[in-house]
């Protein structure tokens, strides 16, 4: 990095996949140019401590020092729901969001963190929101990667919003809903957007070496479109936009995608449109590595209600900014006191004008501090408990009963009334097949079609491990 880049006022964005992490440094001036880029490949065997050390090294080399830092949270780590709520005041919406979270995830309120985006409002006092729910444990894991740096100004925002912002900046056609597709090696994120708003999003994984990969990819995209149109009727997308460079995608992929979703497909060459320098692009070893889930956050600041940071981290940030405001007030008061003490040769009228000017500045600072006080009260509100959906508990109980001793469940995703996703690992393939057979015969799972989506072997310190994913689709 050049010396001039180090001296510029800058912000940082960090995004993660199972294959790599990306760190972007960007200027906070009128032109938000990318100043530095780190793409660090990761192995499946990379431990949390190793990742923490790699991150710290990259940030130190990029001259990080209490700069604004945004963590782009992977879409598969969050649950999103499109809701219509009887409120339009952000303070009231925040309370409703916290209460609604327990309906969609089987955890007590204190174990969940929420954020939201206001999509639209009406004259009846209602508004439609995109509610984002994340387990506190997930956020703590990502924040722990940066613990050694003790960042004061840190935000966590869902990666899908980066797709929407980047598209809005690079495309002039924003009036109708659009289906955005971002592929990063085997990881895919799809977001539906209109006027920079995130309407719906989903993550899925399709291996690069999977036979008939194009067809499997198109089927998953079409399934996503089906869920979107069912959850948000009346806003069909007019086209599909693939983030990537011309010639990057296999012709069969765009053809299969267009045939499945029955929409025109276009490619948006975001790297060339963003005018990223050759020096930065040369740091991306694989052309299929995507920067889309981070680039959008470099273009504009995310609204505060999208921040998924833990309440105590928000409190730290609030105190950090409050101290800055107090310094401003102190300097204003000190300036006024010095002016009076030095006996500047001003007329009484001029002194009066000067003091009024200082009072206006003080009033402005105090006005800006009022939202911080409101945030303090909001963070002290206690979340009331919600009853866990009995159907979810039945599913969890049955899956626990059927789980073979040699297998374990790492992740459970419940799309209310439609789909259940099971992600886990096993010591051998027989245990996976035994679990699938048990689910197919289970009376509790009788309304679901059980499908072993994939089972992949990998080497671990304890021996060979089988990673598996099971889809349970309601008939």
Walk me through what this model shows.
By secondary structure, the chain is of the alpha+beta class. It folds into 3 domains: 3-75 and 156-306, Nucleotidyltransferase, domain 5, CATH 3.30.420.40; 311-379; 390-474, Gyrase A, domain 2, CATH 3.30.1360.100. The chain contains 14 helices and 17 strands. A hairpin with a 3-residue loop joins strand 14 (407-415) and strand 15 (419-426). It is globular. Mean pLDDT is 84; it is low at 381-388.
The figure for the number of domains is 3
Secondary structure tally: strands: 17
C-alpha termini separation: 56 Å
State Rg.
Answer: 25 Å
Topology summary:
Layout: H1 3-7, E1 10-16, E2 20-27, E3 34-41, H2 48-61, E4 69-73, E5 79-85, H3 90-104, E6 112-121, E7 127-135, H4 136-144, E8 154-158, H5 160-170, E9 178-184, E10 187-194, E11 197-205, H6 213-231, E12 240-243, H7 251-261, E13 265-268, H8 270-273, H9 278-281, H10 292-299, H11 311-341, H12 348-379, H13 390-402, E14 407-415, E15 419-426, H14 429-441, E16 448-460, E17 463-474
